[in-house]
Amino acid sequence: MSFIKTTNADTATGTTAARPARRATPEPGFVEFVGLIAFMMALISLSIDNLLPAFGAIQADLGIADPNALQYVLTAYMAGFGVMQLVYGPVSDVIGRRPTLMIGLSVYCVGSVLAIAAHGFEWLLVARAVQGMGAAAARVLTVTIVRDRFSGREMARVMSLTMMVFIIVPIFAPAIGQLFLFVGSWHMIFVSMLGLALVQIVWFNRRMPETLHPEYRRPFSVARIRDGVRTCVTTRVSIGYATAMGLMMGSLMGYLGSSQAIFEVDVYALGPMFPMAFGLIAMVMGFASFLNSRLVRRLGMRRMSHTGICGFVAVGAVQLALAFAFDGRPPLFLFGVVLAANMFLFSLTVPNFNAMAMEPLGAIAGTASSVIGSYTTIASAALGALVGQAFDGTVVPLGFGYFGLGACALLVVLWTERFRLFVPHHPDPVR
């Protein structure tokens, strides 16, 4: 008999309770489980990062006059991604995790086909929005399935390992996108996205059993969904850490939107070397996620994430000061080191924020994942668009984004924890 695992809350270090599984097929082991979940997250990351080197080709092919308009290729994806997360969680609480994910991945495949056939910028934006609407299922179900099986520090560990793969993908994604440009057109990048989605569908169908606990399965009810949303937004820990996560992710989205202009074209003019610079910073983030997965069980989510957010704000201040000191164009090595340090701290923080936001909401994991995911995605996309559209040929707007958004996130965390940082405690889960 296979088992669904859960752990104690924030101070738990690995004790488990067993629930009988609801399917005779053996579950994947821990490594394969993390691999399956990470592959879902990697699909989201690839849908953003391997398209970045194609901005120039898309601009030339589709006759786009304003280079900053290319950022809408990311914004359209994130818009569909953010809005549809509100749907998949409640649906998964009714019909289960597996069928919900299959619906979402099917929508993603439709968006990929539309993008492959796109011959106009508006058409491409619509295709990207449809892709995002499908990918939203992967985002929601990733967190939901992990929460079905784990809680507390063990959940933070799994999310860190998953995030590590999610972050490692950008090390290779721009280079892969560049390779497709060498051998074909930018449309081939979307062919690869379609292929990976089909692999995910087959792998998940064959290996992942249904993880929704029978006692948590809910008949469809608008009132139940409303009550679940109310629980999410009125639980101080959940809404507080979700808000802080959205603010920090806004800085990341600002970086993604302007990274091609900063590294490849305007500020440092690296040209084909852009994927290498992008990948080195992603490598630092991946190492930080791995480190977090090893330390969080011993030190706790709050100690790790509170240290991370305080460091993030401090390094953000240094980043902004450097931008002003060098008229918006600090030396590449210096800028890269400071940016990498900030992304290192980002990766020590955000996975734990995510786990702490979900921790009290195990009984409504699907709805909670939808609400938190949609909220953080829409907030980060809007904030990231503001930072990205402010790009003026210097790194000053990005410095303001990292420092300003980080400082706001720290203030929110202080409110959430009633001005007591670094103190582990036992949240009272909603059951």
What can you tell me about this protein's structure?
- The protein is an all-alpha fold and 431 residues long.
- It has one domain: MFS general substrate transporter like domains (Growth Hormone, Chain: A).
- A two-stranded antiparallel sheet has the order 1-2.
- Helix 9 packs antiparallel against helix 12 and helix 10 crosses helix 12.
- The protein starts with a strand and ends in a 15-residue tail after the last helix.
Question: Structural class of the secondary elements?
Answer: mainly alpha
How many DSSP helices? Answer: 14
- β-sheet strand percentage: under 5%
Briefly note the CATH topology name: Growth Hormone, Chain: A
**Straight-line distance between termini:** 25 Å
> What percent of residues adopt helix (DSSP H or I)?
over 70%
Oligomeric category: single chain
CATH hierarchy: architecture: Up-down Bundle
How many β-strand runs? 2
In round numbers, the mean pLDDT is 85
Sheet with most strands: 2 strands, antiparallel
Q: What is the CATH class name?
A: Mainly Alpha
Tally of distinct domains: 1
Radius of gyration over C-alpha positions, nearest whole angstrom: 21 Å
Major sheet: arrangement of strands: 1-2
Report the principal-axis shape.
Answer: globular
CATH homologous superfamily classification: MFS general substrate transporter like domains
Which consecutive residue ranges, at least 5 long each, have pLDDT under 50? Answer: 1-24, 427-431
Order of helices and strands: EEHHHHHHHHHHHHHH
What is the topological layout?
Blueprint: E1 3-7, E2 16-20, H1 30-49, H2 55-62, H3 72-95, H4 97-116, H5 121-149, H6 152-183, H7 187-207, H8 222-234, H9 236-265, H10 274-299, H11 301-325, H12 332-358, H13 365-389, H14 396-416
